[in-house]
Amino acid sequence: MSLDVKCIYSQPVRVNLITAGEGRFQTRRYLSPSNDTRGNAGLIAVPLLITIQLRIKYFLNLKQAHAFTVNILGIETSCDETAASVVADGTQILSNVIASQAEMHSAHGGIVPELASRQHILAISPVIREAVVDASLSWPDIDAVAVTSGPGLAGALIVGVNAAKGLSASLGVPLIGVNHLEGHLKAAWLAEEFDVLRDHPEFPLMGIIVSGGHTELIVIHSHTKYELIGATRDDAAGEAFDKCARIMGMPYPGGPEISRLAERHPDLERLPRAWIRQTHDFSFSGLKTALLRRAEDLGLTDESRDVRLVAGLSHELQESIVDVLVTKTLGAAEAFDCNGIIVGGGVAANGRLREQFHRQSTLPVFIPPPVLCTDNGAMIAAAAYHHLMSGESSGYDLDVDPSLRLGKAA
Ligand code: ADP
Ligand code: MG
Questions:
Q1: d(C-alpha 61, C-alpha 390), whole Å
Q2: Whose CA is nearest to atom 19 of ligand 1?
Q3: Which of 217, 252, 278, 302 is geometrically suited to a Cys-Cys bond with 230, CB 3.0 to 4.6 A?
Q4: From residue 99, how far is each of 125, 138, 191, 200, 337 by CA, in Å?
Q5: In order along the chain (410 residues), what is the average pLDDT of each group of 10 residues?
Q6: What's the predicted TM-score (pTM) here?
Q7: Which domains, from first to last, does the chain contain?
C-alpha cells in the first residue's frame, strides 16, 4: 500500500490555475501540468499522524457519525481529467478541483491512454491536496474516500484507485469504489436549484448518460438501485461529436466546438437519424459515416475548407444527435412510468440538448450545471454518499474494472 502511495507522490508537479464556474460551482481547473519541485511530504505525513484519532471516530457507529456532517473526498481519474472534490452530506460541494489534460491530447486528435496515465500520476497529489485546502478542511475532517473504479481507461483508473487506497488506509476511513456512470447521474443532486430532487426524489427516475464513452438509458429505482434499459450499439454520443469534429478538421474535444459553430449557421444540411425502433438502444456510427460522405462531397476534409459549410454541417449533426437523444429518452421515461428525467455526462453540457429536453418534456428534467456534466470528483463523492450511509464500503482488494456496467443484471 505505502509503496503505491510513494510511487504516486514521488513526482510532484505544479499546475497552472484557472478558475471556472460561479458561486458554489466555482471549480479550480488546472491545465498543462508542468514539472516542479514542490514537496508533497505533508500529504502523507499529516494523515499518518492522525490515523489513531480517526480510527476511534470510526469505531463509533455510522448512524451516530451521521448526526454530524459527513465529508467525502471524491477522486476521479477514469479518462483525461484528474479531479478531486470534497462534498458534504452527498449534496454540498466544498471544493471541486479538476486538472484537465484536454490540451495535451488535443495535439494527438484524441486521448492517448499511456499519456493520460502518466499525467494522472503527475497531477493526482496536488489536485487532492488542493481539494482539501479549498474546502477549508484538514485531513481529520475527511470521513471517507470515494474513487472511480470503472468504467474507464485501466491505466488511468489505477492511479486514482491506488491514491484512494493509500489515503483511506492512512486516514483510517472507509474506501468506497464508485461506478463512474452512477457519478454522472448523481451530479444532479449537487445542484442547489434542484431542491425538490434533493429533498424528495420521486423514484423511479429515467437517467440518460451521454458522454465521450457512454450513451446509456438507466431507470433509477432508488439512490442505489439502477436498471440498464438501453445503450449505444456502436459510438457514444460524445464520441460521434468528437469523431465528426475531427473529420471536419476541428480539435479534440469536438463537442464544444461543434455546438459553438452550430449556433451560427442553421439549416443548411440534412443528415439521417438512427431511431432503431422497438428498442431503447442507440446508434451513432451511421450518422458519422453520413457526415463523412457529405464532408467529402463538400470538400470539407481538405485544408481549404469553407467555414460556413462546416458550420452548417455541424448544426445538422447536433440536431440529429439531440433529436434522437431527446425523443428516445422521453419515450423510455413514459414506457417505464418515470416521474422525472436526469441527464448527465459531458454531452449534457450541450446548450441545444438542454433546451430541447426542457422544451419537449412534460416531466421535470434535471440537468446539472455544465461544469458538473463533464468528469469531476464531486459527482463521485455524491454517488458514494448513499452507499456509505447504507453501510457499504470497499476492501483494499478493490480493483479497477475498465468495462464496469451500471444496472446490468448479473
Ligand atoms: P467521459 O466520461 O466519457 O470521459 P465526459 O463525461 O467528460 O466524458 O464528457 C466528454 C465528452 O463530452 C466529449 O466527447 C465532449 O466532446 C463532450 N462534450 C463536452 N461539451 C460538449 C458540448 N457543449 N456539446 C457536445 N458535446 C460536449
Ligand atoms: Mg464521464
A1: 12
A2: 346
A3: 217
A4: 11, 21, 21, 34, 39
A5: 25 43 57 39 41 44 62 96 97 96 83 91 97 97 98 97 98 98 98 93 98 96 97 97 94 93 82 95 97 93 82 96 98 98 98 98 97 96 97 98 86
A6: 0.85
A7: 2-191+374-389 (3.30.420.40), 202-367 (3.30.420.40)
